[in-house]
Amino acid sequence: MKKVLNILYSTRLMAVLFFAISIAMGVATFIENDYGTQTSKALVYNTWWFELIMIFFTINFFGNIFRYKLYKKEKWSVLLFHVAFLFILIGAGITRYISYEGLMIIDEGETTNTFFSDINYLNVIIDDNQFQKETNNKLLLSAWGSNSASFTEYFQPKKDGKNHQIDFKLIDYIPWVEKKFIEDDNGVEHIKFVESSSGSRHEHYIKRGQIQNIHNILVGFDAKDGNANINIFKRNDSLKIITKSAGNYQVMATQQKGFVKQDTIQDFKLRSLYNVSGLPFVVPQYPTKGDIKTVRGKKDNKKYDMVIFDVTTDGKTERIELTGGQFNVDGQKQFKIGDLNFRAWYGAKQRVTPFSVKLNDFQLEKYPGSENAASFASEITVFDKDETFDFRIFMNNILHYKGYRLFQSSYLNAGEKIEQTHLSINHDSWGTAVTYIGYFLLFFGLIASLFVKNTRFYDLKKSLEKIRTKKATLSIILLLISSIAFSQHNTHKPKELSETQIDSILQKSIVDKKHADLFSQLVIQDAGGRMKPAHTFASELVRKVAHTDNFKGLTPSQILVSITEAPMFWLNVPFIYLEKGNTQIREVLGLPKDTKYARFIDFYDENGTSKISHLVIEAQKKRIQSKLEQDAIKIERRVWLLSQALGGGILRIYPIPNDENNKWVSQPETSQANFRGTDSVFVRQSLPVYFQLLQASKKTGDYTETNKILDGIKKFQRKFGSKVIPTQDKIQLEIAYNKANIFVKLAKYYGYVSLLMIIFVFFQIFNNKPWINYAIKAFIGIIIILFIIHVLGLAARWYISGNAPWSNAYETIIFVGLASMFFGLILGKKSSLTIAATTFLTAIILSFAHQNWLDPEIANLVPVLNSWWLYVHVSIIVSGYGPFALGMILGIFSLFLIIFTNEKNKKKMKLHLNELTTINEMALTVGLVLFTVGNFLGGMWANESWGRYWGWDPKETWALISIMIYAFVLHMRLIPGLRSKYTFNLWSIIAFASVMMTYFGVNFYLSGLHSYASGDKVITPNSVYYSVSFVFIIGLIAWFKHKKFYKK
């Protein structure tokens, strides 16, 4: 027994469990991406072996409390957060096995006390015409692999009556079911009928002799009863058509047109566009023999699934097919076996609350001039035998009542009126309470462990002080790192464009910079409803289309004025950036291989057809895209954005007076916006008159009259758009922010200063003169100033957007850079090497933020993010990325120290290795505390927003994987064979891959609540393979050196 307990409590088992659960969860996220949440639960999260890992973790936690005597009062903080995990696991168990949740759907004005379970069941109601019994059996099925399920129920209406045994056996499970026509020579003839009356293409297969109702029009294929509005039939191997309404057609190949006469038999032409009774349709091929079969479709959460069961009782078996899915109660099938009647459906189990809820009013607020929801809420009344009261449910404001919690989840938009609200509901008061106790113990224990005595972090601080008293200097490692930095910052200067005539016209016709700045102060309303100065759009236009901050020496504002004034001229300006090295796209466009910028007209042939649209259409169908197709998609987006600017529709500068949604329109849209009187004249004439006056102003240099027109537009904006227009201070700040380009410049300055500081530290090794020490202190002072500018830049972005600056990919990377620099300055305040390394790391992070695939545009938030939880959860968890990144760079430095160790410098290198490793462990400890607290705060946010503190979303799952991996790294010192400084530093680099996956991998590889992409069509960049190779090579070399000089 003692031997078994020793195994269960061992640190080796702990390491195995860390890896086992991390690998299992990582695999599950990819299963979910490809096969759906239900499959990931069926194969991983809800399996017995996954729960067994949790049980072993609990036993191991409990045992190590006694093994390491964490119950002693001086170790209370460590005990606290270890006990916290026991509470969290117990709470999770209560939630899984006792609690339940679902969705309550209420139409406006209606009252209900029922809701649909979020778990799928096989629901069956059995009766013998006198007595009735309902059974509900959970079904958790996998879209990958085989499934098996069987249930036995008993139906005994009377105590002394016959007891019927009823067996249910799963025969097949078909996910994302769809009907598909399968050709078969033994089948029945079908006609393929393609229509697009709803604005999108739909295919229908009509069986010979039958009629289908297609958008309330009866369409038949050789229908005999005469009821079809459109009847296509065969006569002597040719097709005929007869209709109850007149229509027309056009032969696609020849463009020949003709008419369809009412109640007249006519020849039917294949591959021709018919329009009868308002229904446009085509029959592309001659009728084919086959059958309509139920098949598995592509992954689509909007589609239902099908289950096929054999139901056996009293020696008789009936096979049933049920179509359904989550929250579904439709598709019920009735059948009879012997004397028993059955009604079955696959999907939700209907549950009942002890109170009723009435939806009095659903309220939806939109961003100004946009269809994007800013917030939505349900005004409800709760009816109970004890009391009746009104309540307003909206995002992050939930109703707690009698152990139930109701959350605003979604809504059904039926045209202009919202007729239905969707409220998430859960019953998990005990599970939530126990879990929250665990969270609070965890937060308190982790944070306390950073400050109180007798903790590992306290020991590390003391150890660092001792190391610094013996500190020696480093050598060649610094020079090597600086060479790496120079190679990473190497760029190629663009070649000069040769279109001298266009350059000459531009320089002669371009507007004065000061006047362009005045034009750029006009406020526009973008498609998402955000109000911003025209300067912001101009900057985005130039950056996205031309991939530069200025073009031909012109400011973005000058370019915007020029495009708006002379769009026809800009059709011929080489302005659209083409990806480097892709000669294929240039061949498609008919351009020389060295062309850097293409003209708008280069993308269209003489018929006005896009030259690259076929590439984009084909690319969007594929999971893996070629480089040509990827570049075609990027370029097509640039062409589209420029087309919007050329058409003038993007400049929505005119507010519609008294508009309910505060909509603004562009000059081309004013004719449809119901402006009246002088307002109508002003919005139609102001821009044309402005551009007429601008021609004269450019010649004379006197912009007085044109400035008056701009002033008039601004006054019009203030008068009719006062509810949404930003203040003048905010407009000026946003323009200044755009011009300053703070974070691009900071990336350069951080990089330059870090390289110079590394060089000076290198010289300090050999010549410790006072002036070198002063120079290094000066560099630290400059870095602190850059850090302050970094903070001010984020603060400015916060003020401009009105949201915390960590709500999208670009902002969080900028914030990670800030957090890295902050912790580098704090943890390395007496280590110039650490500060230099951190500054270099921050430069890389900021440079990474400005890669082509990240958009720095400021945008409005979706409703769920418009919460104070965003400030707390995201700021803390993103701050954890900084120390992890610092640990990674210090790990690399440490391995290079080992690599360049020799007999002569062994003593000095060992001291520096001890120092960097100690700082590294402190950084990882701080990072793990922040990351863990931030992650579980996110769980609390989710629980307060939609009633689920853990849903195995890929983002939260990979965050947990990162916590597990870093917990393993920090516990390696307790595991025999893994206690060396080499192993720790190597794993501090490897572990960072989990952080990269948590942030970038989930956002761009996997689908989920937090992702920015669908999870498809992503190719791993080459930099990943280079990074893995780099770590493998230095890790291998360092291993040999460590074995020679450090291993005892």
From TrEMBL:
This is Cytochrome C biogenesis protein. It comes from Tenacibaculum aiptasiae. Its main location: membrane. It holds the Pfam family ResB. It is a multi-pass membrane protein. Keywords: Cytochrome c-type biogenesis, Membrane, Transmembrane, Transmembrane helix. InterPro entries: Cyt_c_assembly (IPR002541), Cyt_c_biogenesis_CcsA/CcmC (IPR045062), ResB-like_domain (IPR007816). It is found in: Membrane. GO terms for molecular function: heme binding. It comes from the Bacteria. One of its GO terms (cellular component) is plasma membrane. GO terms for biological process: cytochrome complex assembly. The keyword Transferase does not apply. Residues 806-1010 form the Cytochrome c assembly protein domain. The chain crosses the membrane at residues 12-31, 43-66, 78-98, 430-452, 472-489, 749-766, 778-800, 806-826, 833-850, 870-901, 922-942, 957-975, 982-1002, 1022-1040.
